[in-house]
Each structure stands twice: as structure tokens, then as C-alpha cells.
């Protein structure tokens, strides 16, 4: 990026300066990034290998390092989208309205453990967890209750369900929208639909084999985008955030999402589609973790990697196919139950990383993260944190403001290189389903988790209030409790539905679903029919289980 | 905590088919081998013979999942089952992680099944010392079948063969080429071969296995069959059970079952004797004596190592007491 | 899972139950005749679940045979409630695995 002769001069001066340091002492810690990249005391033009036009370019132009839109936040600020759901759809609706009235610009549904595991509240295995960790969405009626009175034609909605239940839950949502008179061709939103979340991110309960999960994820993509049923929807969000929270580092986070994305693209190509038919709607969900600069460099590197991957490996023609769009969540695992107020500070810094990294949509955690689901006061503060950055700091005034920093550019290059070799490493094992089924990904996760936990227990990674300046658990924070009556309410909702619906008609539709599953055809068309008639998520997933069998993950300990 | 391990109380409950008593007696025989004699003396006269099936194969091939699928079918036909699942003990920390049970949740609540996980605790051959004792307890409890899942074993550890009447060896697609299979020496140990995870392929392995089994010399009159299964969906598991039953019938008709049973006990008797002799030797030959030998070996006498050990041993004398 | 691994590395035999229902947890604990039942819960349903497990153990007359530990995202306000139910100790976020090992070793032979 710089003139040869000038660089020489800098080098000479640098050597002089290095001498000056010889008699100084450094603190006795390791100067490395969170992912272990050694960091020098100073970066200068000598460290910048990137060529401006080729490697950075202009926002909205390839390789998109500086952002995917030409005007970025000068045109539209990132969407403030707080992941929320609890108790019942009605209560969650209230929470959404509360946030909307305070300036939230996107909705995101955290569903309860039964919904994402495909279990109905009438099943005694799960009844204790109805609504305790998210909103129960078991049938189409729940969707009406969830969105009642909300402008879902203008505000985008994220449904955080994974491939095991994404087809029925999305079908319920689309049917509801249609019945509310909306055209689903213009409906905006996202489904998480991430294969790795319910496998390495979480211990699933009676789900099916990853090969089927991968296919189910691709069914939704295919039906929404290339088949143009809900073409403006993001049918998948590769959720690096979730495995990052399990302990892996920034390099692995990107490695996992890109390897996973490739497996999905390959599957759709096998189905006869071209990358340009669908790839523009694939989205990502990343973490904003503790290492400030590394995270910012991560977002920039991610955009460049995705561009190259889609252009070089898949030979896409349309530049819009190569745009890396992403949602960010601040790191819940960095937050503590000890001095929860400090969490506000942590979250603010992490939110700033996302803003400086060119994020499209952001969730900020509440200070009670390590205690309970967010209380109203806590979640409002989390929203205000984003609003402070958007409205008071002037951070969004210019695009990619850290570009050109010797350090940031160097770190972006360094991360990119390391991510490419990690992608290679994963792909040597096979596609993402194979990497799961063989247990390889589980071992990577396990090792990473143990490394992080050991670092914390040894005090190498500082957690204030826990391993430095330790304090007891905070007794004063209000503990938000979910509605104990939710079980009864949801059981009743389903019982009423079962009385009301045409059960004979459903029998034949279930037979049809069974056949579709056996033949491994796209499940979406039948899902639209069957959920409209009142089939529940649990009943539908039971058909999956019956036809494909239950899969137990090869968990590594 | 109040823990109750009163043997008499437990035996009384055990005889009434109380699973809690069975569980605690297993703990006793596993942790305090000296209680075994006392416990077993209560079962003299019990005639029940269980049929013992061994399930072995490399780590992760689906042994536990298959045990789950097998048990489901056996339970449906009214049989009772005792399962012993062995997982490895870490040689470094002595700890173990017993993960087989997670795969058996389909059947674990059935009244006619009992599942026990064991850590190998340094015992070799893919099983643990207590496996034999627990199998006797299961017999006394009246189980129709005993299924033993070994540690995910590597190449040559197939001690299960000495305990089980039918040994099922599991392989999966991607296990390796035929040379690998031969090296593993498994051609001699399996009574039935299973190629699991058939959803991932495996036809090639079946072909190779069939060829090798055709070439192998058969002494017992039983040509081991190869079965393909998907232990998640249960595909092929019925036919595996058929083969197990065929093998059982073959053993019964050819009187080989008697041989197998004899072998099972002979194996344990040998092991008990050598452990007893080991203890006797320990008491006769002091650590000092052994130290002396190792010290002199280091001082230029390494070629006398055999000599010295023979000499030491020649001072030991065993004598058999005349019994009346 | 960190906890399982930590305890194993401390020389214990850990039986991993995965995601089990209450009957299965109790049945496993009885059949395996374990010393400690450890429940890890992050779903906010810790009070309901623990109560069910303990009630079933009592029903089978084996509650006092086991040392019961609970961990996960548990608000400190619930620690006492859980202990009153009969849980020996509760571990929240930020727990050092060494402390769990120490507690088990000290309490198991009682
Ligand atoms: C990491 C994390 C995740 C990761 C998990 C990744 C992984 N592979 O592990 C991801 C992102 C996948 C995740 C997902 C969800 N999460 Co989460 N998650 C967390 C988080 C941030 C940290 C948990 C953690 O792993 N900590 C590190 C470990 C080492 O600590 P620990 O689990 O607390 O364990 C320690 C002690 O508790 C104790 N311990 C734990 N278990 C046991 C057991 C025994 C026997 C003993 C003795 C001790 C013990 O020892 C451990 C060592 O220190 C917490 C919030 C927080 N900061 O605690 C939320 C949290 C647990 N998650 C929560 C929720 C709601 C979810 C979701 C259900 C949201 C949703 N509706 O979709 C989803 C799960 C569904 C899905 N679709 O995946 C809620 C639970 C709410 C509640 N309790 O009321 C929390 C509390 C956040 C919040 N406030 O909303 N999550
Ligand atoms: N695709 C597929 N996966 C299977 C099949 N059978 C088992 N698995 C999976 O393989 C993994 C290992 O299964 P286990 O039953 O634990 O294997 P194991 O041989 O008992 O393993 P160890 O006891 O650890 O040696 C699990 O994720 C199972 O779900 C099958 O037929 N097809
Ligand atoms: Mg196993």
C-alpha cells in the first residue's frame, strides 16, 4: 500500500526505535489474541501487506472488506433485534410490543426447549420446561398470538429454530401471514435453521441424524429462495455465535460457518440449482466476544473470505451473491452472575465491536444474562446500549472507520489466512454432516471448551468478579421468573386445537408427510398444508423420528 | 448419605427380584471382591442359565446403539435381559466416562431389563474383572439373555470371546481395506459380523468379509454370516437376531454350547488361580530380592537376568495338600 | 460437560446421562448404584426438575443413598430452596471444578 522507498525509511527508523525499547520491561503476560495470534508492541506500514484496491476496495464493491452496502449506516442503521421469548406467545407479544415502543427495529423469537426439540407440551417428558427458556410455538394458533398487533409486514422477524423444527415452525408462520392477508413473497425475516446448533451447540433431545438435518435445512432454503415462495426471507443463518459460546475461538468460528455453508451450497447444487439462484439469501450470525480488535478484524476478514469462496470455488456470476451479511450477538459467556452490573460495561464494548465491524443486525445481552431470562428493566438497558452507540456517539457517521489502521489491516489478513487453513482442516474430514457424525467436530468443541475453562480456572483469562477481585453472587438482582401457568395454558391451547381441527383429514396428510419423508422429498409443500390444518410441531417431529430414527450425538468428553 | 450394603438384607430382596438389591450387590462384587464368595453361596441350587451375547468392535461403530435395538426386540418377545457395558478407564487419571447408557434410553425403563455400566479399571481385553461376576449375578437373577458390550477395542483385544457364547463383531463403512481386517485378526473371533451404519454404505466391506470368510477354514461347522444394520432405525436388526438364534441353535445341537460354557468357567478359574499364585509369590519373594536382581542387572550383569530369576524361583516350593 | 470431564480427570467414574427424563435419571442412578447424582440445568426449570427427581427418589425409598448436586445457571436466591429440598450443594456460574471434586471427596464416605 506504500511506496518502496518510503517503506525503507520507515524500516530504518523502526530499527532505531526498537533499540530504544531494549532497556524497557514488559508486563509478565502473554500478548496474544483470544485465538492465540501473537501481537507485536507496534504496527507500522511495514506490516500491511494488503493492496487497497484489490484487498479492501470500496464499500458495496468487491471484495466487500469495507462493508456490503455502498452507504452503510449513512443509509440505514443496523437493525436492533433483541432475542426474546418467554412464558406464552401472548406474554412474548407484550415483551415485543414493549421493546418496539422503545425503539427496537427488528423482532427475534427465542423459542422454548420443547419447540426446538419437537415436543408438545402434552408430553410429560418436557412439561416442566414449557416457556422457561423461550416462547412455546407448537401450532399455528401460537403464531397469531405471537404477532398480534405487530407490523410484521414492515419489521423483519427472526425465528430462532433449527432444522429439526424449522420446516413446521416456518410453515406455521407463513400460513399465519397469509391468513392475515399478507403476501409471503414480500415477507421479511430470518430462520436460524443451523445444523450445528442442535448438535455441537446443544445436547438435543430425540432429534434425527445430521444427514437428515442437513437435508431439512436445505429444504427450507430451496422452497423459500430458488423456488421463490418467500424470496426475501433469509432461510438460514449460519450461527457461529452458538459454537463460539461453547468455547471455540474466532478462527474456528469462521471455519465452522464457512465449512457448514459450503455443505449446504453443495446440497443445493446437487438438487440442480445454481449458486446465483440462492446464495445471496444465506446469512450469518456471529459473536462479538472479548477481544476487541480481533472481533472487528474477524468481521472484515469474513466478508473477504466469503467473497472469494463464492467467486472462486462456486464461480458465481452475480456480485450480490458474494455479499456476507450478518447478525451479531454479544458474548453471553463473558458475562457473570457475580457483579452483574459489570456486564453492562462488557456488553457495551462488544456492541461497539459489531458497529465498527459493519454488522447488519445486533442483539445486546442483558446484565442478568448469567442469572435468568432478561427482566424488563435489564432488556431495556440492553436496547439503550445500542441506541447510545447509534444516536449519541456518532460512530455510524463514516464507513469502516478502522480501515487503514496498520494493526487492523494486518490482523484482518492474518485471520483470513488462518481461517482458510482451518477450513481445509475441516474439509479433510468431510462435509459438515460427516464431521458431526464421526464426532470430529465434537472433539474440536470439547478441546476448545476445556482450554477456555482451564485458562479461566488458572487465571490466565481474567474474569473480573470471578477469578480476579472475586465477589460473591449478587443477591440484589431481581430474578425474572417465567409464568408457571404456561404449561397449563399451552396444554389447553393444544387440546382445544385438537378438538377443533379435522382429524380425519389430518390422518391422510400425516400419511402423505410420512411418504415424503421416506422418499426424501422436500418437506415444505406438505408442511404448508399440514400446519394449516392444525398439525403440531411435536406430531410432525414424531413422524421424522418414526421414519428416520432417533440420533444420539457422539458427544466427546 | 446413608448407604446400606447389608448382604443378608440385599440377598433377601434380590431373591424377590428387587433391582435395587441387584444394583447394590453388583457394587459389592465390583468394589469388594472378597464379598463375592459370601454372596454367591446364597445362590447354590439356582439352575438358571442365561445365554450370553458379546458385542465388540472399534470405538464409535454403534455397539451401544445396536444393543439398544437388539434389546428392544428381545423385550418385545418377552425375554429378560441383563446388560453389561464396559468403557475404558483413563490410564493416567484412573477416571472414566461411561457413555454407553445414553444410547439405551429407549429400553432402560422396561421392567425386564437391567443395564449396568462398568469402567475397565486397568483390566485388559476390552472388558473388566467384574464382568464375569456380574454375569453370574444376572444368571442368579434369572435373566434370559446377558449382553456384554466391550470397550471400543482396537486390534487384538477380544477377551469377550472367552465369556460370550455368541460373539458379534461390528464394523462400519470406512473401517479400512481387507488387509486391515485381516490384521485385526477378527476373522477368528466373530460368530457373526455386522456392518452397521448401512445408511452410509458398506456393501464393499460385506463383499470383502464374505470372501475372507469363505477362505477361512471352519472347524466348528459354523460359517459366520455377515449382516448389515442401521442400528438407529433398527433396519437389519431382526435378521441379526435371527442369526444369533441360529448360532445358539447350532451350539446347542452340536454340543458346542457345553464347550463354550466350560471354557467360560475354565477361563475364570485360570485367572483366579494365577492371581492367587501371584499373591503367594508376592508374599514369598520380597521386594528386596527383586530389587537386588534389578540392581545387579544394572551393574554389568544384564546377561544373567534369566539365571538370577530362575535361581530365585528355584527356592520357591508349592505343595498340594492332600484332600480327604 | 466440563464438569463431567473435570470429575473424570480427578479419577472418578462419571456416567453421562445426556438429556434424560426424571424416571430415566432415577433409574440410572439406582441401576448404576452411583454415589453422586449430579443435575446440570440451564433452562430455568431447575426447581421443578429437582423437586421431581427428589420426590421419585423418596418414593423408591433411596433418597438418602445418594449425594445430590445441582449446577448450572441457578440464581443464588434458589440455592437455599434447593438445599431445603435435599440437595447437598448447588453450583452456579463461575464454579471451579476443583471445588466440586473437593466437596464430593469430603462428603461421600459419610
Ligand atoms: C454458552 C451458552 C449457550 C450456548 C451453548 C454452547 C455450548 N455448546 O455449550 C448456546 C449459544 C448454544 C446457547 C443456546 C441457548 N441458550 Co444459553 N447460555 C449460554 C451461557 C452464555 C453460558 C453457559 C455456559 O456454558 N457457561 C460456561 C459453563 C462452564 O458454566 P456453567 O454452565 O454455568 O457451569 C458451571 C456451573 O454452573 C457448574 N455446573 C454446571 N452444571 C453442573 C452440574 C453439576 C453436577 C455440578 C456439580 C456443577 C455444575 O459448574 C460449571 C463449571 O464452572 C448462559 C448464560 C451464562 N453466562 O451463564 C446462557 C443461558 C444458559 N442460555 C439460556 C438460553 C435460554 C438458551 C436457549 C434455550 C435460547 C433459546 N431459546 O434458543 C438456547 C438453547 C437452544 C438452542 N437453539 O441452541 C439461558 C437460560 C435461561 C434460564 N436459566 O432461565 C441463559 C442463562 C442465558 C439467559 N440469561 O437467557 N446458550
Ligand atoms: N449413521 C448411523 N449412525 C449410527 C448408526 N448406529 C450408531 N450410529 C451413531 O454412531 C455414534 C456412536 O454410536 P455408539 O452406539 O455410541 O457406538 P459405540 O460403538 O457404542 O461407541 P463406544 O462405546 O464409545 O466405543 C452415535 O452418534 C450413533 O448415533 C447407524 O446405523 N447409522
Ligand atoms: Mg458404546
Describe this structure as you would to a colleague.
The complex is a heterotrimer of chains A (557), B (324) and C (110). In chain A, helix 8 links the parallel strand 4 (189-191) and strand 5. In chain A, strands 5-4-3-2-1-9-8-7-6 form a nine-stranded parallel sheet. With 557 residues, chain A is α/β, with parallel strands linked by helices. Chain A is 48% helix and 7% strand. Chain A has helices at 4-21, 52-56, 72-75, 89-101, 113-117, 140-147, 163-179, 210-224, 240-244, 250-270, 275-278, 292-313, 342-356, 376-392, 406-429, 432-437, 440-458, 486-500, 503-518, 524-532, 537-548; strands at residues 79-84, 106-110, 157-160, 189-191, 233-234, 236-239, 282-288, 326-330, 361-363. The termini of chain B are far apart. Chain B folds into two domains: 12-269, Rossmann fold; 285-318 and 320-324, no CATH class. In chain B, strand 6 (166-171), helix 6 (178-183) and strand 7 (192-195) form a beta-alpha-beta unit. A seven-stranded parallel sheet of chain B has the order 4-2-5-1-6-7-8, sandwiched between helices. Chain C has one domain (2-107): Rossmann fold (3-Layer(aba) Sandwich), CATH 3.40.50. Chain C has helices at 2-9, 22-32, 46-59, 79-85, 97-107, and strands at residues 13-15, 36-41, 67-72, 89-91. Chain A binds chain B through residues 209, 211, 437-439, 548-552, 554-555, 557, and chain B through 60, 65, 97, 99, 102-103, 106, 199-200, 230, 232-234. Magnesium ion binds next to helix 4 of chain B.
At a glance:
The complex is a heterotrimer of chains A (557), B (324) and C (110). Chain A has 21 helices and nine strands.
Sheet with the most strands of chain A?
9 strands, parallel
| Low-confidence sequence ranges of chain C | none
Instruction: Domain count of chain A, please report it.
Output: 1
* Rounded mean pLDDT score of chain A: 94
- Roughly how many Å is the radius of gyration of chain C? 13 Å
Give the name of the CATH architecture of chain A: Alpha-Beta Barrel
Overall geometry of chain A comes to: globular
Along the chain, the helix and strand elements of chain A come as HHHEHEHHEHEHEEHHHEHEHEHHHHHHHH
How much helical structure, as a percent, in the residues of chain A?
A: 40-55%
Quickly give the structural class of chain A.
alpha/beta
Amino acid at each position: 500500500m506504500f511506496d518502496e522507498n518510503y517503506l525503507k525509511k520507515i524500516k530504518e527508523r523502526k530499527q532505531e526505535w526498537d533499540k530504544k525499547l531494549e532497556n524497557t520491561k514488559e508486563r509478565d503476560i502473554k500478548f496474544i489474541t483470544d485465538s492465540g495470534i501473537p501481537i507485536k508492541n507496534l504496527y507500522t506500514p511495514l506490516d500491511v501487506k494488503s493492496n487497497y484496491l484489490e484487498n479492501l476496495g470500496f464499500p458495496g464493491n468487491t471484495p466487500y472488506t469495507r462493508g456490503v452496502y455502498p452507504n452503510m449506516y449513512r443509509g440505514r442503521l443496523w437493525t436492533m433485534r433483541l432475542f426474546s421469548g418467554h412464558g406464552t406467545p401472548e406474554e412474548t407479544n407484550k415483551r415485543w410490543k414493549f421493546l418496539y415502543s422503545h425503539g427496537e427495529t427488528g423482532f427475534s423469537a427465542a423459542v422454548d426447549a420443547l419447540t426446538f426439540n419437537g415436543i408438545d407440551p402434552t408430553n410429560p417428558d418436557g412439561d416442566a420446561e414449557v416457556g422457561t427458556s423461550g416462547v412455546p410455538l407448537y401450532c399455528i394458533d401460537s403464531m397469531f398470538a405471537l404477532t398480534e398487533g405487530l407490523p410484521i409486514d414492515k419489521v423483519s422477524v427472526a425465528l430462532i429454530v433449527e432444522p429439526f423444527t424449522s420446516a413446521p415452525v416456518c410453515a406455521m408462520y407463513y400460513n399465519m401471514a397469509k391468513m392475515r392477508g399478507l403476501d409471503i413473497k414480500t415477507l421479511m425475516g430470518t430462520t436460524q435453521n443451523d445444523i450445528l446448533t442442535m448438535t455441537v451447540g446443544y445436547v438435543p433431545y430425540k432429534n434425527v441424524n445430521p444427514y437428515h438435518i442437513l437435508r431439512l435445512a436445505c429444504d427450507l432454503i430451496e422452497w423459500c429462495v430458488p423456488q421463490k415462495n418467500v424470496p426475501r426471507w433469509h432461510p438460514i443463518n449460519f450461527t457461529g455465535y452458538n459454537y463460539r459460546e461453547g468455547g471455540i475461538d474466532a478462527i474456528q468460528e469462521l471455519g465452522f460457518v464457512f465449512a457448514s455453508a459450503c455443505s449446504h451450497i453443495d446440497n443445493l447444487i446437487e438438487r440442480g440449482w445454481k449458486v446465483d439462484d440462492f446464495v445471496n439469501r444465506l446469512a450469518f450470525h456471529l459473536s462479538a466476544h472479548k477481544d476487541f480488535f480481533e472481533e472487528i478484524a474477524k468481521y472484515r476478514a469474513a466478508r473477504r473470505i466469503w467473497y472469494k469462496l463464492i467467486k472462486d470455488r462456486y464461480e458465481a456470476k452475480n456480485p450480490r451473491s458474494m455479499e456476507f451479511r450478518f447478525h451479531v450477538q454479544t458474548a453471553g459467556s463473558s458475562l457473570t452472575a457475580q457483579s452483574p452490573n459489570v456486564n453492562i460495561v462488557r456488553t457495551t464494548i462488544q456492541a461497539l465491536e459489531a458497529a465498527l465491524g459493519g454488522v447488519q443486525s445486533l442483539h445486546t445481552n442483558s446484565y442478568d444474562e448469567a442469572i435468568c431470562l432478561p427482566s424488563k428493566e435489564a432488556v431495556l438497558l440492553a436496547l439503550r446500549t445500542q441506541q447510545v452507540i447509534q444516536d449519541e456517539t456518532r460512530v455510524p457517521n463514516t464507513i469502516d472507520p478502522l480501515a487503514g489502521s496498520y494493526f487492523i489491516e494486518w490482523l484482518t489478513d492474518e485471520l483470513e489466512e488462518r481461517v482458510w487453513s482451518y477450513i481445509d482442516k475441516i474439509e479433510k474430514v468431510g462435509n459438515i454432516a460427516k464431521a458431526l457424525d464421526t464426532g470430529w467436530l465434537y472433539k474440536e468443541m470439547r478441546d476448545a471448551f476445556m482450554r477456555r475453562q482451564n485458562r479461566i480456572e488458572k487465571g490466565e483469562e481474567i474474569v473480573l468478579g470471578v477469578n480476579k477481585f472475586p465477589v460473591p453472587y449478587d443477591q440484589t438482582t431481581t430474578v425474572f421468573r417465567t409464568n408457571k401457568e404456561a404449561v397449563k395454558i399451552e396444554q389447553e391451547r393444544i387440546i382445544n386445537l385438537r378438538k377443533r381441527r379435522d382429524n380425519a383429514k389430518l390422518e391422510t396428510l400425516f400419511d402423505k408427510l410420512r411418504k415424503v419423508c421416506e422418499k426424501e422429498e422436500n418437506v415444505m409443500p406438505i408442511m404448508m398444508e399440514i400446519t394449516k390444518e392444525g398439525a403440531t410441531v411435536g406430531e410432525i417431529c414424531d413422524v421424522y423420528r418414526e421414519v428416520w430414527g432417533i440420533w444420539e450425538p457422539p458427544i466427546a468428553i | 448419605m446413608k448407604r446400606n450394603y447389608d448382604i443378608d438384607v440385599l440377598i433377601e430382596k434380590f431373591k424377590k427380584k428387587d433391582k435395587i438389591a441387584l444394583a447394590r450387590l453388583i457394587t459389592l462384587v465390583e468394589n469388594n471382591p472378597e464379598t463375592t464368595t459370601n454372596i454367591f453361596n446364597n445362590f447354590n441350587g439356582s439352575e438358571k442359565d442365561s445365554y450370553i451375547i458379546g458385542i465388540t468392535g472399534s470405538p464409535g461403530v454403534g455397539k451401544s446403539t445396536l444393543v439398544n435395538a437388539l434389546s428392544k426386540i428381545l423385550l418385545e418377545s418377552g425375554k429378560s435381559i441383563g446388560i453389561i457395558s464396559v468403557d475404558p478407564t483413563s490410564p493416567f487419571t484412573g477416571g472414566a466416562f461411561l457413555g454407553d447408557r445414553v444410547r439405551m434410553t429407549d429400553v432402560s425403563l422396561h421392567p425386564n431389563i437391567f443395564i449396568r455400566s462398568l469402567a475397565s479399571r486397568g483390566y485388559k481385553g476390552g472388558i473388566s474383572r467384574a464382568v464375569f461376576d456380574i454375569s453370574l449375578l444376572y444368571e442368579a437373577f434369572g435373566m434370559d439373555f446377558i449382553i456384554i458390550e466391550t470397550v471400543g477395542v482396537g486390534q487384538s483385544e477380544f477377551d469377550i470371546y472367552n465369556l460370550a457364547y455368541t460373539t458379534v463383531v461390528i464394523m462400519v463403512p470406512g473401517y479400512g481395506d481387507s488387509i486391515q481386517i485381516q490384521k485385526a485378526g477378527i476373522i477368528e473371533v466373530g460368530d457373526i459380523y455386522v456392518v452397521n451404519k448401512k445408511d452410509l454404505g458398506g456393501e464393499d466391506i460385506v463383499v470383502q468379509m464374505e470372501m475372507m470368510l469363505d477362505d477361512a477354514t471352519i472347524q466348528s461347522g459354523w460359517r459366520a454370516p455377515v449382516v448389515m444394520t442401521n442400528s438407529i432405525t433398527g433396519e437389519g436388526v431382526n435378521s441379526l437376531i435371527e442369526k444369533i438364534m441360529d448360532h445358539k441353535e447350532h451350539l446347542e445341537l452340536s454340543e458346542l454350547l457345553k464347550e463354550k460354557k466350560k471354557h467360560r468357567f475354565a477361563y475364570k478359574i485360570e485367572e483366579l488361580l494365577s492371581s492367587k499364585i501371584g499373591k503367594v509369590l508376592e508374599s514369598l519373594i520380597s521386594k528386596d530380592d527383586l530389587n537386588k536382581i534389578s540392581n545387579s542387572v544394572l551393574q554389568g550383569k544384564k546377561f544373567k537376568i534369566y539365571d538370577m530369576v530362575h535361581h530365585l524361583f528355584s527356592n520357591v516350593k508349592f505343595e498340594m495338600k492332600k484332600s480327604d | 460437560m466440563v464438569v463431567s470431564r473435570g470429575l473424570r480427570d480427578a479419577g472418578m467414574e462419571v456416567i453421562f446421562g445426556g438429556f434424560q427424563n426424571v424416571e430415566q435419571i432415577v433409574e440410572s442412578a439406582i441401576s448404576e448404584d452411583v454415589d453422586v447424582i449430579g443435575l446440570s440445568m440451564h433452562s430455568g426449570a431447575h426447581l421443578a426438575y429437582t423437586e421431581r427427581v427428589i420426590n421419585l427418589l423418596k418414593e423408591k425409598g433411596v433418597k438418602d443413598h445418594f449425594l445430590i448436586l445441582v449446577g448450572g445457571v441457578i440464581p443464588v436466591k434458589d440455592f437455599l430452596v434447593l438445599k431445603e429440598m435435599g440437595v447437598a450443594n448447588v453450583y452456579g456460574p463461575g464454579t471451579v471444578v476443583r471445588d466440586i471434586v473437593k466437596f464430593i471427596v469430603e462428603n461421600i464416605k459419610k
